[in-house]
Amino acid sequence: MTGPRIVLVGPMGVGKTTVGELLAERLGTTFRDTDADIVAAEGREIAEIFVDDGEPHFRELERQAVRAALAEHPGVLALGGGAVLDAGTRELLAEQTVVYLSMDVEEAVKRTGLNAARPLLAVNPRKQWRELMEARRHLYTDTARVVVATDGRTPEEVADAVLDALEWKEA
Ligand code: S3P
């Protein structure tokens, strides 16, 4: 099967980009991020897309970005935190090596609570996080082949845990 070696999913702020870059380095491959692809293609920030065109439109753009990346990118791929909400996107991920990077609500609030650049968390972050996690947890676990908890771990430790979970050794 072609396509990325690893696809990372999980909530915003869990470290998909940082861990994804480390994994790519260890596997001697490249890293790609569908959020960055969307920003580059649209020429505007994700927050602007949400405000201007709404979340459903963003999810469509995201599905297209995921489809393109799965077809073109052989390395490590990170998806936006809400990508798994879209049934079409979940279908695209069915045969992929998907890793769910998880964290608990308190860790999430600590890491992202004050980050206003993330439009879904602008107001009452703890409540938003609880609701987000409850709505999404099963979608992440259903989509992923393995789950790696990130709480209290450095990005290096998380990358090790991902490789262990997939039983890959460093080159
Ligand atoms: C979102 C997560 C963001 C980005 C957008 C929506 C979400 O990605 O795609 O703001 O719904 O959780 P990151 O997980 O990379 O922050």
UniProtKB/TrEMBL annotation:
Cofactor(s) this protein cannot do without: Mg(2+)
Keyword Phosphoprotein: no
Annotated cofactor note: Binds 1 Mg(2+) ion per subunit.
Gene Ontology MF term list: shikimate kinase activity
Top-level lineage group: Bacteria
EC number: 2.7.1.71
Residues binding Mg(2+), per UniProt: 17
Principal location class: cytoplasm
Pfam family of the protein (one): SKI
Primary role: Catalyzes the specific phosphorylation of the 3-hydroxyl group of shikimic acid using ATP as a cosubstrate.
Similarity comment text for this entry: Belongs to the shikimate kinase family.
The protein's name: Shikimate kinase
Originating organism: Streptomyces cavernicola
